[in-house]
Amino acid sequence: MAKHGHDVTIVERKKFPREKTCGDGLTPRAVKELGDMGLSTQLERFHRYEGLRATAHGKELELQWPTHPIYPRYGYVVRRRELDMMVARNAQNAGAKLLEEHEAVAPIMEKGCVRGAMITNKENNTTVALHADYVVIADGANSRFGRSMGTSRERAWPYGTAIRTYWQSPRHQEPWIESALDVKDRNGKSMPGYGWIFPVGDGTINIGVGLLSTFKNFKDVNTSNLLDSYAHMVADRWEIDPTKPECKATSGKIPMGGSVGPKVGPTHIVIGDAAGSVNPFNGEGIDYAYETAHMAADVIHDALTSGDAMALKRYEQLVEDEYGQYFKVARLFARIIGRPALMRELSRVGIHSRTLMEWVLRIMANLLRPDELGPAEAAYKAAAAIVRLYPNA
Ligand SMILES: Cc1cc2nc3c(=O)[nH]c(=O)nc-3n(C[C@H](O)[C@H](O)[C@H](O)COP(=O)(O)OP(=O)(O)OC[C@H]3O[C@@H](n4cnc5c(N)ncnc54)[C@H](O)[C@@H]3O)c2cc1C
Question: How far is residue 359's CA from residue 380's CA, in Å, rounded to a whole number?
Answer without folding.
Answer: 9
